[in-house]
């Protein structure tokens, strides 16, 4: 059914712009209030197209934007991209293209423009309007974290005939209130809070809009405001952290978990091929492209099976035919690369987090790249709890012990008994690194870590040695080369090579963009 909905949306030719007409936005249709936005089915159909846009945007970029560059992966096989791993982005890098993201924004703009005037009852239509506002905010939030200043476009395509043909870049700071205003409109339209722990996870609701707002406030260093949102989400929305006994199940069946707040749903038969999880880190059809670094491997070996998260990051059964359980020590990683256990090419640490256990009860069934189904978490309540811990460290309402307690709560519920002690983390920076390191394990393969280290201005702290230790062709002797100086001490978000470059087609299509590439990238 879903594919027919999307075919219908395509036939409207309103928002599904091609590469040739992106930001060269002439009206595609005379579709109007009288010809379409008339029934709840119209709203459902358009809403499906909005989520299709989210899927297209994050199919691979959940990993490329949110995790791969963060210094915790090494290449495997032959299809890896060292430019993504080792600070080699350019304007021709495919994932620097924002077309899918803006196509999603166009669809939300249409919903926001048309739903208020449609004859569907407000009690029904408000939910669709709220989802559109929340999705637009989420898309712009991704955009500012990836590219910094980006075009602010709010009009539906059919309404711009008399407006400027091209858009320049709006600053990250100017977009702050726009994003937060969209989220506030969404929260208001969703209505009063209810027990959302058992709500459908694949559609935005008040809880997920609140989670996005928390994330945005943390990005803009509004820690005290973020703390209020986090406390509200933890206390009043019915979410609960999943215990160790059912921890793994929530990634395969998020609908049954009160921990999940919002998930991206992907079915390869409905969505046109497999989600990127398989080809990158869990392939059943060829060698994976990336697996954990030696540092991460050692951390996992230290935790072993006591921490249930370990075996969801590292398939210990899968590598046991190469490294036996008795040999699975901290030294085994280097030995494997030295060929001590046989052909080094056979050493690959797959991530089974979203893989089904096989029917023999031991190990996992990894799907071919083109048949990968995933229900990828975008927000979970544990995410909220650890962001709250950051706010307790960095806001004006200091509670360092409370932050350490939050980390220990997350560890205990995963079965790891080793508790952090405040005395071992004497500075705020030490505490933030404790939280980031715990988030790295907790949210492995969920596209969080890069944003965590950028949000806390710790890119060089985490990546300098990683870049120095990279293979000769990719190593940077002075660490991660940002390429420009920080614009100001209180600068928000990325700059220089922390950001992604604008894609080369932007400058060909939009003359107002010329000369406005993210330095030091070329156009």
What does it look like?
This protein is 45% helix and 5% strand. With 523 residues, the protein is mainly alpha-helical. Among the domains are: 39-76 and 89-166 and 181-189 and 496-522, Serine Threonine Protein Phosphatase 5, Tetratricopeptide repeat (Alpha Horseshoe); 283-371, no CATH class. The longest helix is centred in the first third of the chain and has 26 residues, at 122-147. The model is unreliable at 3-31 and 159-164 (pLDDT under 50). Belongs to the SusD family. This is RagB/SusD domain-containing protein. Residues 21-206 form the SusD-like N-terminal domain.
How are the SSEs ordered, and which strands pair?
Elements (H helix, E strand, L loop, with lengths): L1 H11 L27 H19 L2 H6 L6 E3 L6 H4 L13 H16 L7 H26 L24 H19 L15 H14 L3 H14 L12 H4 L7 E7 L1 H4 L4 H6 L8 E3 L1 H10 L6 H4 L2 H4 L12 H7 L17 E2 L6 E2 L8 E7 H14 L5 H14 L14 H15 L6 H7 L3 H10 L35 H6 L14
Antiparallel strand pairs: 1-3, 2-6, 4-5
Helix pairs in contact: 1-2, 2-5, 2-6, 5-6, 6-7, 6-8, 7-8, 8-9, 9-17, 17-18, 17-19, 18-19
Strand residues, percent = under 5%
Structural class designation? mainly alpha
Question: On the 0-100 scale, what is the average pLDDT?
Answer: 91
Largest sheet: 2 strands, antiparallel
Compute the number of helices. Answer: 22
Strand-and-helix sequence, N→C?
A: HHHEHHHHHHHEHHEHHHHEEEHHHHHH
CATH third-tier fold name of the domain at 39-76 and 89-166 and 181-189 and 496-522: Serine Threonine Protein Phosphatase 5, Tetratricopeptide repeat
- The gross shape turns out to be globular
Q: Kindly report how far apart the N and C termini lie.
A: 42 Å
Family: Belongs to the SusD family.
Protein name: RagB/SusD domain-containing protein
Domain SusD-like N-terminal: 21-206
InterPro entries: SusD-like_N, SusD_RagB_dom, TPR-like_helical_dom_sf
């Amino acid at each position: 059914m879903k594919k027919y909905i999307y075919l219908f949306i395509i036939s409207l030719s309103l928002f599904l712009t091609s590469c040739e007409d992106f930001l060269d936005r002439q009206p595609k249709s005379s579709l109007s209030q009288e010809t379409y936005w008339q029934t709840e089915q119209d709203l459902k159909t358009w809403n499906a197209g909005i989520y299709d846009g989210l899927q297209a945007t994050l199919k691979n970029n959940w990993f490329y934007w949110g995790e791969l560059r963060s210094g915790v992966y090494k290449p495997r096989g032959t299809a890896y991209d060292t430019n993504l791993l080792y600070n080699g982005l350019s304007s021709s890098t495919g994932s620097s293209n924002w077309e899918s993201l803006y196509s999603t924004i166009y669809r939300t703009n249409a919903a926001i423009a048309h739903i208020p005037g449609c004859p569907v009852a407000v009690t029904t239509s408000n939910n669709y309007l709220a989802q559109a506002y929340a999705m637009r905010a989420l898309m712009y939030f991704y955009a500012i974290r990836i590219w910094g200043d980006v075009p602010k476009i709010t009009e539906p395509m059919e309404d711009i005939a008399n407006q400027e043909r091209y858009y320049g870049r709006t600053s990250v700071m100017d977009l702050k209130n726009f994003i937060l205003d969209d989220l506030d409109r969404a929260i208001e339209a969703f209505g009063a809070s209810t027990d959302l722990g058992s709500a459908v996870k694949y559609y935005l609701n008040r809880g997920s809009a609140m989670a996005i707002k928390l994330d945005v406030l943390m990005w803009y260093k509004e820690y005290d405001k973020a703390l209020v949102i986090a406390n509200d989400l933890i206390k009043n929305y019915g979410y609960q952290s999943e215990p160790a006994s059912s921890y793994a199940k929530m990634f395969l069946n998020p609908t049954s978990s009160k921990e999940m707040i919002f998930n991206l749903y992907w079915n390869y038969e409905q969505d046109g091929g497999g989600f990127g999880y398989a080809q990158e880190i869990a392939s059943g059809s060829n060698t994976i492209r990336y697996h954990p670094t030696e540092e991460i491997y050692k951390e996992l070996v230290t935790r072993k099976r006591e921490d249930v998260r370990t075996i969801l990051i590292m398939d210990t059964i899968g590598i046991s035919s190469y490294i036996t359980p008795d040999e699975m020590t901290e030294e085994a990683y280097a030995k494997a690369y030295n060929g001590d256990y046989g052909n080094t090419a056979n050493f690959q640490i797959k991530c089974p987090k979203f893989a089904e256990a096989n029917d023999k009860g031991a190990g996992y069934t990894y799907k071919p790249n083109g048949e990968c189904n995933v229900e990828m978490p975008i927000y979970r309540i544990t995410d909220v709890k650890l962001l709250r811990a950051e706010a307790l460290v960095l806001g004006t309402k200091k509670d360092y012990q409370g932050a350490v307690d939050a980390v220990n709560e997350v560890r205990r519920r995963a079965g790891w008994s080793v508790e952090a002690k405040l005395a071992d983390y004497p500075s705020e920076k030490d505490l933030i690194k404790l939280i980031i390191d715990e988030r790295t394990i907790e949210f492995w393969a969920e596209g969080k870590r890069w944003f965590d280290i950028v949000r806390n201005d710790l890119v060089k702290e985490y990546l300098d040695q990683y870049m120095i230790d990279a293979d000769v062709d990719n190593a940077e002797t002075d660490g991660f080369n940002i390429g420009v100086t920080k614009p100001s001490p209180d600068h928000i978000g990325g700059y220089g090579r922390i950001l992604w470059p604008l894609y080369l087609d932007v400058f060909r299509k939009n003359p107002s963009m010329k000369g406005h590439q993210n330095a030091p990238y070329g156009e």
